[in-house]
Amino acid sequence: MKLRTKDLKFYYGTFEALHGITIDIPANKITAFIGPSGCGKSTFLRTMNRMNEAMRNTRVEGEIQLDNENLLSMDVTDVRRRVGMVFQKSNPFPKSIYDNVSYGLRVNGIKKKSVIDTAVERSLGRAALWSEVKDKLHKPALALSGGQQQRLCIARALAVEPEVLLLDEPCSALDPIATLKIEELLFSIKDITTIVIVTHNMQQAARIADSTGFFLLGNLIEFNDTKTIFSNPSSKETEDYVTGRFG
Amino acid sequence: MRHFQQELELLKAKLLEMSALVESAIYRSVQGVVEKNAELAHHVLNNEARINQLEIEIDDFAISLLALQQPMAADLRLITASIKINNDLERMGDLSVSIAQSALALVKEPLIRPLIDIPHIAGLAQGMVRKALDAFVNRDAELARSVLVSDDAVDNMRTASYHELISFMEANPQHIAQAVYLLSVVRNLERIADHATNIAEDVLFLVKGIDVRHHNEEKTALAHT
Predict the structure, then answer these.
(1) What is the number of alpha carbons within 13 Å of residue B187 lying toward its C-beta?
(2) What residue ranges define each of the domains in chain A, with the CATH number in brackets?
(3) Which of A201, A207, A214, A231 is the best mutation test for B, with the most CBs of B within 10 A?
């Protein structure tokens, strides 16, 4: 197991947003979380690289382990390097394509140009963007299309070779072709990283995830292999959600 | 009710219309043989086109629901089970036509001997069809399981009838033609029972999400021990 949480609770002020989540997330697989808005799936995702700590007046209880190490007591910069994140809205830095991808490497103290060049090409390649941008690496990242910008953000996250990649609705602002490209690239990077994705799009979870978890009102209602969740879920609530009876 | 739910209800309604036609075809073809009633047999032949037409309509509708609604979980199982049940019903319709054709051949001359076990086998097969379809309508897994159990009884009766008819043919070679028609009726009834079994298996998949075909359940249970 790559990531493991035990009785994980999360509070926004006095509001308990997660009611004791226990889950084992397997390495080198795609794990998807689905559930209606406000169910806690994004909150849960953000606890896994401690992004929630950036918000004031929040609190975590319980355990999170990354490779059996206590993630909550690690150096937060280490956590963010090992557990990368991509958000719903692509957020490239207002810099060149090259500078975006190399940014994390420079922050981590890598200075040698040949090393950085190799890493930039490798990361853009893995993010299925290299062939589209290789002749304009020093052009502004913000001039790329929405789908390209999102793949650039994935390339930027991959450049520091994270062990886990968290994605929060990475395709919700993209057209079907751009979505397909992202899904294909997730398949292709499974062997080098563990992927955890939050999605509103059930078909997306069904297409790409090995395991799927259903969240409702701060609880993890069911976590099972994806085929079971979408063909024969054990819980009535999951059944009602995936068949569109509510949510 | 959501639009999609209404569409699923419509799919079920079409399948029930198909079931009613097929059940009636089985009944009439059997009565055609038992009562030597050519009119009932002709009725079966005339109704076949409607059954075939419905088969196409149901498949087309089910495929459009799969394509347009991307159904999940119980809805997905309902649609895939409907496609398979539809296919089994249409085959039962074809088998009724074969029985009706045998009936028309048999009415031409007096039966040399009583109809061996045909009424009995027919009763069992029709009961299985009835139960399998009731299980579908009421999503009744227990009833579906009871159909699976009956299949062996029908198989045994078919084998016994075969032996009896073969002995009869050996003793009365001048009546072989008649015996062959009776043999065909027995065989077609046994096949109808097989299709009823398939439907019962599909109902179990629909209700429980389990696949019991080809003793899969026992194999899976063994694999987990």
Answers:
(1) 11
(2) 3-242 (3.40.50.300)
(3) A231
Query: What residues of B are in the A interface, CB distance below 8 Å?
Result: 2, 4, 70-77, 209
B77–A238 CB contact, under 8 Å: no
pTM metric for this prediction: 0.81
User: What CATH number should be reported for the domain holding residue B181?
Assistant: 1.20.58.220
Residues of chain B contacting residue A243, judged by C-beta atoms under 8 Å apart: 71-75
Looking at the structure of chain B, the number of domains it has is 1
Give this complex's ipTM.
0.71
CB contact under 8 A, A203 and B70: yes
Domain of residue B212, residue span: 3-223
Residuewise pLDDT in 10s, chain B (225 residues): 788 889 999 999 999 999 999 999 999 999 999 999 999 999 999 999 999 999 999 999 999 999 888 899 999 999 999 999 999 999 999 999 999 999 999 998 887 766 668 999 999 999 999 999 999 999 999 999 999 999 999 999 999 999 999 998 999 999 899 999 999 999 999 999 999 999 999 999 999 988 888 877 777 676 666
Hey, which residues does A212 pair with through a beta bridge?
A32, A224
